[in-house]
Specification:
extended; 18 helices; Nucleotidyltransferase, domain 5; alpha/beta; two-stranded antiparallel sheet; five-stranded mixed beta sheet
Length: 513
């Protein structure tokens, strides 16, 4: 074989090796894309059975980290027999529910009261209950006419004039409009609670013969938000700025008037534990710049902001604030690597071992028992700090990580200081899940409505998102809450806006679910 032929073979082998590496990379990328499109959205792995990923306990993991030990995985195959057992029906619930409803009796009269044998008139003995069922009363419109009473004094005639005194009529929400407080409350409930866009609502409103269109609904919703609801949201924002620890995240939204591919809703939420009040605030901005944070919580905010790894959450912009990181976002980088691997590769994957080290941290956090944030902090330092140290010690000693594994490890190491913020203050949450859950209803509305036409509409959306999310956290009926606001805000006459916050006693009494 000539030297030229040998060189050609070596070149072809090199090209084949590069092609195989490229194919492996593209296969992993394709598998990850398929998993993101069609796979489960949860990042929790199920119990391992034959053919699935191997989840090691802590002893097995420590053995695998040592090069002197060999690990043999034993797969136990169990036969499962599915037995369907129907739960017994709870007795009395249906009757109790029917008893709680307004009762309407219907008597089915006997058409022929003559005896079928002798044809004489029969005597009625009584009646029996044949069946009971809940009936739906369709929505219907009615016109409410509000009159003012006027009284005249028959005894006084100052300066020769009669004394006339009239009762004061309440100011309506939208004067000279079809839209009463109850109708607009139902429109807002449909749109911002049930994610039903205005153009889809039209069928329902036309079915009850209400004259409207989607543009008219949108204009009135915006007008009411600007005239009456903005001060309420500003008050919520002021209260949010006083919280020591808050969640923050952002989600894209398209606004046609901005002529940009994406604008953003910034969501801020109080923590589930230890916060003064449960509330969520949405803020519209046409940018994802970190400068927006100052417009929400103030430039001098000195609390802790729980967020993701986005660079806009920067101490360069806000030196007084502290930032903590969501541990789920760090874990997600490793889970995405696992999803692109075959079952055999997962068994020896560094990413899988990293996830295994993170798992007991979440489990231990859920098992902590405490009464206040100082006690929670002490429990974390005792039980979670060693687990966190073990995770970071492991990923720090991984030799020469490559590709996405390298990026995941570097990301975790870069954010280590923010991760350890949970050991500085017991109020700091381990994950940013609460604010992401608060954002989900708005993403459903975004999918159904696609976009906002104007900036005014986007800002109105943020106001209604804030009120709906905060009302849900305080267990309010959304329609009742909007109806109460629309009835009372036009007539508050200098009353403090705090009286209309979702957790006040009057609101809880009148608007509770």
């Amino acid at each position: 074989m000539t030297d030229k032929a040998k060189q050609r073979i070596a070149e072809l082998e090199r090209q084949l090796k590069e092609a195989n590496q490229k194919i492996a990379q593209l296969t992993a990328m394709l598998k990850l894309q398929q998993n993101q499109l069609f796979g489960k959205k949860t990042e929790v792995f199920e119990k391992i059975t034959q053919g699935q990923q191997s989840l090691f306990n802590m002893e097995e993991l420590s053995q695998m980290q040592s090069q002197e030990h060999e690990t043999t995985e034993v797969v136990t195959v169990e036969r499962k027999q599915v037995v369907r057992r129907h739960k017994p029906k709870a007795s009395g619930k249906r009757a109790a529910f029917l008893d709680s409803l307004p009762q309407v009796d219907q008597v089915i009269e006997l058409k022929d009261t003559h005896c079928p044998n002798c044809h004489n008139e029969m005597k009625k003995l009584g009646q029996r209950l044949a069946n009971r069922e809940a009936e739906l009363k369709p929505a219907e419109l009615y016109c409410k006419n509000t009159y003012q009473e006027t009284f005249k004094c028959e005894h006084c005639h100052p300066n020769g004039n009669d004394v006339l005194v009239s009762s004061s009529a309440p100011q309506v929400l939208l004067p000279h409009s079809y839209f009463s407080s109850s109708i607009l409350a139902k429109i807002c409930d449909f749109k911002f609670n049930l994610a039903l866009p205005f153009h889809r609502q039209l069928k329902w409103w036309k079915a009850i013969a209400f004259p409207t269109n989607d543009k008219l609904m949108a204009n009135n919703v915006i007008k009411v938000s600007e005239n009456y609801l903005t001060p309420l949201c500003e008050k919520l924002k002021q209260l949010m700025q006083k919280e020591a620890v808050i969640h923050m995240d952002e989600t894209p939204f398209q606004v046609l008037e901005e002529h940009k591919s994406n604008c953003y809703f910034w969501a801020t939420r109080t923590t589930k534990e230890f916060s003064r009040h449960h509330m969520t605030i949405f803020h519209y901005a046409n940018t994802r710049s970190g400068q927006v944070i100052g417009k929400i919580v103030g430039q001098e905010y000195s609390g802790i902001i729980a967020c993701d790894g986005y660079g806009g959450y920067s101490n360069n912009l806000y030196p007084e604030a502290k930032f903590s990181i969501c541990l789920v976002h760090i874990r997600r980088e490793f889970i995405n690597i696992i999803k692109a691997l075959s079952n055999e590769q997962v068994m020896h994957s560094v990413a899988q071992q990293a996830v295994n080290l993170l798992r007991p941290i979440f489990h231990t956090e859920n098992q902590l028992k405490y009464h206040h944030c100082q006690e929670k902090l002490a429990q974390r330092k005792l039980k979670i700090l060693p687990l966190m140290d073990e995770f970071y010690a492991y990923i720090s000693q991984v030799p020469r990580p490559m590709g996405k594994l390298r990026a995941a490890i570097q990301n975790a190491l870069k954010l280590k200081k923010r991760v350890y913020r949970i050991f500085e203050d017991g109020q700091v949450p381990l994950t940013n899940n609460p604010v992401e859950q608060a954002i989900r209803p708005s993403t459903l509305i975004r999918k159904n409505c696609l976009f906002a036409t104007s900036v005014r509409g986007a800002k109105a959306n943020a106001i209604y998102y804030s009120l709906v999310a905060t009302a849900k956290l305080n267990h309010l009926n959304i329609y009742k809450y909007f109806k109460y606001l629309f009835d009372h805000l036009p007539n508050r006459n200098g009353e403090d806006i705090e009286a209309y916050l979702p957790w006040t006693e009057k609101i809880q009494i009148n608007c509770h679910n």
